[in-house]
Amino acid sequence: MQNQDNLSEIDVNDQKIIDNKELNFLEALIPVFILMGLLAYNIFFADGAWLGDYSNQYILLMGGIVAAIVGFKNKVNVGTMLNEIWENLKSVFVPIMILLLVGALAGTWLASGIIPAMVYYGLKVLSPEIFLPASIIIAAIISIATGSSWTTSATVGIALIGIGSALGISGGMIAGAVISGAYFGDKMSPLSDTTNLAPAMAGTDLFTHIRYMAFTTVPTIIVTLIVFSILSATIDTTGEADLSGLLSTIDTTFNITPWLFMVPAIVIVLILLKTKPLIALAAGVLSAAVFAFIFQPEILNTLGSSKLSAIVTSIFTDTAIVTDNETLNNLFSAGGMKGMLWTIALILCAMVFGGVMDAIGALARITKELLKLATTIFGLFASTVISCLGLNAIASDQYLAIVIPGKMFKKAYDDRGLAPQNLSRTLEDSGTVTSVLIPWNTCGAYQSGVLGVGVAEYFFYAIFNWLSPFMTLLFAAFRIKIKMMTAPKTATAGA
Which three-class secondary structure string do you get for 344-391? Predict the structure, then answer.
């Protein structure tokens, strides 16, 4: 969930679903098959570097070209395609600005000693035996409070990655725990825009949606906590002697003080007050810069020719603070805004591909074919899940993965006498949380960029995220908490 603006600014009813009667189902799948084939080749046979550092970006553009050719064949003009691409690009302007600010945040929070202070106190409080489940709980609390998995990752997520890395825990495990907790909170928070969007599309109210969603969400997070508790008890971590060395190095390199926590507190309070994320993050960058001058003047002297130039460098380019500990040297480095450019390029290319696919009517055609398979109530739930998963991969946008299935499947749920909260819950269980599992989706690109851990590394450990759609299908298969509204409106409703 991006929480990039208030729900009132999301033009839900203005979202167009382009239907092209000239396009058949197999033609709609051609760009998808080619895209997936090229991505698979790049991952499994070229070690992710088939076309250089920007391989995935080029592949997405190739997929867009193929989709455009299919569109030309089916009487879609260039203007329509360019218009949809432009609409997609406009929709990610705020997320891109957020990404740039998060890069600046990471740099200034490092130079000001905020991240080192989080790591320092975290190492003292969070023991290896409880670190992973504790990370889930911390991320969940912050995400419920702020309504934003993005804000959670950009604040406590970065700190938890640092603490866990110092403990010797795999980055994939830490990121999986943070993302699991953040998306649990994201789903259950009334402040979340996707939590408001799903019931708006299905035709139910916010709190009915949240209460109904708890039936599948709470068991999923409990399973996730149990698995991570077992992992925490069994993994090998850094010993006490090593930890004391890390603490000593941090303490001698930085001026560590609890006053530094005022900056993340400012950001979180601003979010709670419903300040726009861009303003909240900018405040976090500026206040961190001030704190760097106050608390870390010696660090700034080592980073630039002047304290001001050191701050500017930390905002825009690479920042590296050298200590006598190699683990901390790897940890205390940040790329500033420059470090987010790869992620931004991935998002832009994904929006081009998704825009062309939408313009030629491929998204609507694929969803309609899935709807035809829904001959039973379980089939309807399964078709909704598959549609959400597919749109997260094809359209590369979490909102479209909620809006399009929401509009396309609403009547089918009504016809079978299913209460609208069945649809809104399924949209969240399979649309919201799985977006982070797609590397080129805006959410997957954001989380991997901010946390510094690739999607492939955290995929398995993002247990809450990939388990959620299975949980909703399990409930549907055994008719657990499937609320009926009235008798089915059609004779086709199945068991």
Answer: HHHHHHHHHHHHHHHHCCHHHHHHHHHHHCCCCHHHHHHHHHHHHHHH
